[in-house]
């Protein structure tokens, strides 16, 4: 059997591979605590589950528009305006089968083969493979514990070439928990404008910030900047809805149309029932977010404290998300 070079060029998701291994071990009766997939261990809030049940009973079980239902797009518009201080039109919104599909569609829409994509490292495993699948080239920019694992504008400038097309920025960050501040984002934004570079900003962990950290959307820094940004988010992490597979993107209409075109030939449309449930997630009561964040905060403090008690291991306390990224270089 001949496998395409495109598929040979990408690696399987190590996150999912480790998750599958942990599940297999559990099925064998072994006691396993899996630190693989980034998933809240809470149930989806009851009001969201009830909305899904209502949608099933009402027979909302057919195809929807490829880019998602208007009701959910309007809820997303209101959320972006209220939480992120960014205003869009429904034609600038797409709903997909998870934020991962939004990322995939966006990279394929923006990048040509040979284009370079700037990627702060360490990073989530799927960014690299999606870039390679598009025929583009990931250009890693290392971040360091001493700088809170944050990218600087100077580092970005150093890596820009005539082939640079895109920067992917993830804040709060997986796996480091880094959260970018306004001045840091402004400097990066000015550089992107100067060199005409697009930016995909993955904000899936935006509700999970701690202490004095505040999430800021880079697209909120002005209309000119907004025209170069594709903001990606979803309901998976904030509402414990990872299995519902609903993500969304907001950006320039031309790019959103391109993403919708790809989606129309792949998954057709997002799950109809999950879309209705997501309307309730965004429009309904938000108490569950605070409760989950409080629990994550307690775990964060405990985990980092215990890691730092281990000789030759150091761990920066993460400002956001629900990961700890210990430095084990001294024992390797």
TrEMBL record:
SUPFAM superfamilies: PLP-dependent transferases. GO terms for biological process: amino acid metabolic process. Its cofactor is pyridoxal 5'-phosphate. GO terms for molecular function: pyridoxal phosphate binding; transaminase activity. This is Aminotransferase class I/classII large domain-containing protein. Belongs to the class-I pyridoxal-phosphate-dependent aminotransferase family. Keywords: Aminotransferase, Pyridoxal phosphate, Transferase. Residues 30-329 form the Aminotransferase class I/classII large domain. Pfam families: Aminotran_1_2. InterPro entries: Aminotransferase_I/II_large, AspAT/PAT-like, NHTrfase_class1_PyrdxlP-BS, PyrdxlP-dep_Trfase, PyrdxlP-dep_Trfase_major, PyrdxlP-dep_Trfase_small.
């Amino acid at each position: 059997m001949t496998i395409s070079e495109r598929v040979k060029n990408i690696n399987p998701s190590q996150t999912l591979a480790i998750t599958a291994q942990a599940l297999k071990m559990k099925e064998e009766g072994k006691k396993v605590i899996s630190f693989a997939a980034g998933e809240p261990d809470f149930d989806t809030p009851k009001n969201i589950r009830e909305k899904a049940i209502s949608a099933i009973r009402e027979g909302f079980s057919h195809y929807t528009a490829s880019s998602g239902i208007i009701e959910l797009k309007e809820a997303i518009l209101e959320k972006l305006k209220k939480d992120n201080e960014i205003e869009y039109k429904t034609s600038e919104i797409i709903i997909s089968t998870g934020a991962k599909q939004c990322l995939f569609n966006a990279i394929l829409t923006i990048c040509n083969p040979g284009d370079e994509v700037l990627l702060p490292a360490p990073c989530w495993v799927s960014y690299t493979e999606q870039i390679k699948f598009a025929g583009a080239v990931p250009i890693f920019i290392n971040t360091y514990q001493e700088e809170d694992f944050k990218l600087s504008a100077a580092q970005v400038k150093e890596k820009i070439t005539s082939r640079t097309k895109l920067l992917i920025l993830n804040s709060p960050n997986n796996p480091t928990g880094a959260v970018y501040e306004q001045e840091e984002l402004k400097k990066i934004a000015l550089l992107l404008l100067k060199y005409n570079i697009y930016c995909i900003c993955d904000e899936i962990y935006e509700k999970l910030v701690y202490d004095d950290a505040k999430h800021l959307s880079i697209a909120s820094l002005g209309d000119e900047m907004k025209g170069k940004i594709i903001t990606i988010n979803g309901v998976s992490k904030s509402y414990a809805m990872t299995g519902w597979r609903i993500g969304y993107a907001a950006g320039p209409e031309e790019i959103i149309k391109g993403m919708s075109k790809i989606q129309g030939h792949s998954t057709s449309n997002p799950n109809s029932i999950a879309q209705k449930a997501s309307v309730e997630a965004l429009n309904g009561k938000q108490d569950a977010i605070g409760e989950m964040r409080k629990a994550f905060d307690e775990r964060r403090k405990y985990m980092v404290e215990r890691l730092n008690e281990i000789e030759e291991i150091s761990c920066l306390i993460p400002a956001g998300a629900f990961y700890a990224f210990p430095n084990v270089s001294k024992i390797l």
